[in-house]
Amino acid sequence: MRVVGVVRAFEQTLVAPLSARTCVAYRSRVSANLARYSSGTARTSVQSPKAETLLIAPFLLDRGAEGLVIVDGEHARFDVKAIKLTAADAERKLSFLARHGYSSQGQSSGSFAEVVIEPGMTIAVSGVMMRDVALAPATSEIAFREGPPPTIRLTGNHEHPLVIGESKVVLALT
């Protein structure tokens, strides 16, 4: 199922490790070039494996009159532009490298990228749809033995990840 809506925080927010932005989901990665010293003073650069941190807090997608959808998953793929990191993020970059086992000693360069999903963004999310018992009772009067409508939840895991992308608004010209 694919849903488009405005991101709303649900129970908690996260702080992205590289940019320190408040968000509901992020993917931060580094591809580091490590300096290696061999005999004498010869220096070579070796590409190290990418280090990545991905974290998703449950959040809501507000679809306006169509209602809310809960997005809750352990893994996602992102089709959102990475944010621009600045020189002010240098200390957080070093901290991120240290958390992934890289030392600043011998580090020659690194390529950092971070994608954040912030409250207020309009996004499209695809995932496995589940219907949960409603979070709150219906506001209108319900008939005898009629329960509240179910809550829609989109979920994803490593085998079937959520896909989170920028919403493309298409305007029809008449």
Structural description of this entry:
The chain is 6% helix and 45% strand. It is mostly beta strands. The chain contains one helix and 14 strands. Strands 9-14-11-1-7-8-13-12 form an eight-stranded mixed beta sheet, with no helix packed on it. Strands 4, 5, 6 and 10 form a four-stranded antiparallel beta sheet that branches. A two-stranded antiparallel ribbon has the order 2-3. The C terminus is likely disordered. It is elongated.
* SS-based class: mainly beta
Q: Count the strands?
A: 14
Major β-sheet strand ordering: 9-14-11-1-7-8-13-12
- Mean pLDDT figure: 83
Q: Biggest β-sheet, characterized?
A: 8 strands, mixed
Shape: elongated
Distance between the termini: 30 Å
- Flag low-confidence runs: 170-174
User: Residue share in helices?
Assistant: under 10%
| SSE string | EEEEEEEEEHEEEEE
Rg, alpha carbons: 21 Å
Beta content: over 45%
Number of helices: 1
Defining traits:
174 residues, mainly beta, eight-stranded mixed beta sheet, 1 helix, 14 strands, elongated
Quick overview:
With 174 residues, this protein is mainly β.
Break the fold down into its secondary structure elements and pairings:
Elements: E1 2-9, E2 14-15, E3 22-23, E4 25-37, E5 43-47, E6 51-56, E7 59-62, E8 68-71, E9 76-79, H1 90-99, E10 107-117, E11 122-126, E12 128-132, E13 151-155, E14 162-166
Parallel strand pairs: 8-13, 9-14
Antiparallel strand pairs: 1-7, 1-11, 2-3, 4-5, 4-6, 4-10, 7-8, 11-14, 12-13
